[in-house]
Amino acid sequence: MSTIVSQEMIDSAIEWADGLGLFGLAILSSTEAAFQPIPPDPLVWKMALDADSGFGIAVVVSVAVLSSVMGAIAGYAIGMYAGGWLLEKLVPQSTMARLTVLMERYGAAGIFIAAVSPIPYKALAWIAGAGRMDMRVFIAAGIFGRGLRFGIPGLLLSVYGESVVQSLNWVNFSLVSIAGLIVVIPAARWWHSLLEE
By residue range, what is the domain housing residue 187? Predict the structure, then answer.
């Protein structure tokens, strides 16, 4: 869903939230999981790089994870009360159909997949709320998925710090990009085939 906003808007929101510190991170993370399209990941990475200790990074990651899951709970409530109408208005029909298949076929694993990937977590939260998914399972899958999504970069930055950023020369960037494509291409094919199975 982040393709519907410009990079300039994303940068402005990140800069605004960064000015508020952890409170801004909590606002950005929770609202992204509930209704707005600007991902908190760049702010999590920036704040993790700026942290002066492993504990500071753990606090940044924890705030991002917990506030994101709180926002997803709000998204669940939105789905429970505004469900079908909201989804029809804001989520493309093809995405809606895939997310519905994802929820019906994979349940909690579907929530985990959305929490850790670029699949719109908020839309899946709305669908989970509209379908009255077990709230405990929904929360657990969200914590685990968002924990990985924000925790892995946090761990890498904690262990390797600024050297992670500095090591991104064209060779390393190309290798990481190729590795990413090896994962993304089959994942994209799977996503598009959800309606065919």
Answer: 167-197
